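Q: Fold this one first, please.
A: Sequence and structure below.
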Amino acid sequence: MTRANNEKGRYRMNATNRHLGALLAALAVVVAAGPARAAISAQCPADTDGMDTDGDGNAGNDNVCRHLIASDGYADMADGRLLYVFGFSEILSGEPLDMAVMNHTLSANAPAPTMAFREGQRVYLTLSNAGFMVRPDLFDPHSVHWHGFPNAAPIFDGMPDSTVTIKMDASQPYFYSVVDPGTYLYHCHVEATEHIQMGMVGQLYVQPKQNMLPAGTVLGSFTHRRGQKYGYNDGDGSSRYDVEVALQLDSFDPDFHDASESVQPLPFALMEDRYFLINGRGYPDTVRRGPMPNSFDGQLSQKIDAQVRARRGQRVLLRLSNLSVTEHFTVTLQGIPMHVVGEDARLLRGPTGLDLSYDTTSVTLGGGETADVILDTTGVVPGTYFLYTTNLNFLSNDAEDNGGMMTEVVILG
């Protein structure tokens, strides 16, 4: 066996021994408590106003309903180390709500399910709290905060000082009038540093009404064709794309995660991230296609891969975001031009309409920042290109080099 395989085997064996006692204790608590109360609920009103607010030609489908549930779980890092995480998973339409807590025990996704909407839609999001299976001593409430989003009212913002938070075995509806296109992000805002570090983060973006224009509509010197998509209502086709990929940058401190799992004081002042992630994975797991099960109980806890695939000549919209609580990140892509058309869910235009978009070889994001980057692959030689951080110490999975914050951009002929 290689050194890497030996390390992975050692991590998994130690993890199994370390977690078994905690899990058995948690199960004992659940059994002693008896069946969970059927307190999980959801609100999803029908769209009956007769108005087509998202421009798709259908006046009865503008209300969109999603249902997240908070819990804990596990995720494997690319070197094989198993980390305890907090997170959100999604209760799907038609799933029995009286079984939601049971079905979503240890179901935390890292990162949370991506939420994509169209401008003009009205979103009814329910958040439920299943509690922590491995840490039944914790009674943490949770919230959903759409970072940078103009909310309909403060109560829907998710900030603990201006809204309610959701306790265990309870649910709370949020309402969003989706009026501004662009790339956002979302996270739990209760004990934010802890819960974000533990993995309660997700990707969020809004597609513009310009996507719904009739074929043949003239946008400046550009003519819209059926099926073409845009990052913003740009009025000239400059944010047009063929392929859309959301990539969230993040990082974990394994000592902090271990301390949370083993009921130790949390080392906030000593927090030092050593796993550097794109969509919850380090390289080479970033390019593993499809959902990844964890090595603890086989749940699909890492569902979003990070490989970018396009045909030569296509335009790719990268929706980049950073939700690390400790680091700024700079990413680069050699061999393919990067053109930034939006930042923090705003089209880069001046007050008079002056085009402020720019070409660059790298993009730097602090925590809570986003950027919309167009990759124009016209003339690009087919092959595999690498998008990676220029912070070379972040190109590692803890002590294992040649990993971390890196993924592939595959251009097909």
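Q: Good. Now the second chain.
A: Here it is, same layout.
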Amino acid sequence: MDALSRDKPWTLSGVSSGPAYRHIARQLAEDIRSGRYKPGDRLPPHRILADRLGVAIATVSRAYAELSRIGLTSGEQGRGTFVRRAPYRPSMEAIPEPEPSGEIDLSINQPAVSPKHAAALDAALQTLSGERAIGTRRNLLSYQPSAGQLRHREAAVQWLEELGVSVPPDAVVLASGIQHAVMIACASAFRPGDILLTEALTNPSFRALASLFRLRIAGVAMDREGLLPEALERACREQGPTGLYCMPSLQNPTGAVMSEERRAQIADIAARYHLTVLENAAYDPLLPDPPVSLRNLLVDRGVRTFYVSALSKVVAAGIRIAYVVPPSDFAPQVASAVFATTTMAPQIMAEIASRWIADGTVADLIAWQRAEALARRAIVADRLPGLIDAETPACNHLWLPLPEPWRADQIIALARRRGLLLAPPETFTVGQSPTPQAVRMSLGAARDHEALAIGAETLSDILEGAPLLPYSLT
């Protein structure tokens, strides 16, 4: 039976203190425990209960999330929230940690995690602790070559082969995550004062690296496929750049994916102007059939290319292992950059990554990640219709252009007041490129579907209101 069909007279009148969502959760919990709502009953839809109580939809969503957290209800995607049919007594390990200070932080871009990840890590650690792994453990506790152990680079070859990049083990250098991979590539390929072209919107971590190495970066105009060839050629003519840094697949922050035709055009320009190309392929594994890499289009044309790939953006952020494929004559320099910065990649992480690649765990986790990205995208699309580009493939981040006359700084400030953190556009804007009125939402950062739904509903509630006049947020 639908719990909404009962006469439920309670309201929020008379509540003197405390967040409204906690008051709603407390009253519903009392009704469930008293038997007013029976096991299997469906609680009122979020919007209907919000209208009845005169609160925001996000407030009801937070109340329902709290009921789920303490084990009184369960949510079924597309059907609603139901009272559990049997008592739920989770172990302490199963209880999710609450969001710090009640915040939902969707500003940090990372893949989602699940019990599958925990089970895979448990299995890997148990194997490493077994008697037959004594020799392996000894290696993990010792210094290893800065480029990585041979068997770890052999696993990298298997990983890269799935992405269409075929190289021998000695052509790969291990790094401590994607940021470190880009860092050692920059340290090997460029010098202070060099001009690098990149997308007009690029990931903040690269902007930080460019500043660290005193590189000058210039933004190139984009469209839904990423870099515009005519804009890139104009920048090459006018600025005399040394190199190009770009993310052709599921670009951060826009999610753009270059078509193979566009990649061929970009490769032609890079070859004509003798650019050193640094290709960040962090998100390529999320595409079921990744397009040809820029590296493959350029490697036989005498163009220096650095191709970087990693597990940290598509498997789990804590698996800090990445792979760098530099030009053949640059491998020693890249290995030297590893030695100068971290001596070697973390050996335990390299071992776990290699085992997961070999036994199919990585493929399984990436398949889950693709499905989860689609599910999370659907949650946001349902609550923010019209803001999501339906033609952009699903990934762990969404670029949300804001409707007129909203300004991004208004949205960011209002969302922060309501406990929702989003990434502002100026953190991605390169140089003198125009700053768009948009925000980036990280789907994988939400601890679960309910938290993501609350975040999306909070943003929806804000957008349904009237924009404030500029600078009136104090």
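Q: Anything worth noting on the second one?
A: The longest strand covers residues 305-310.
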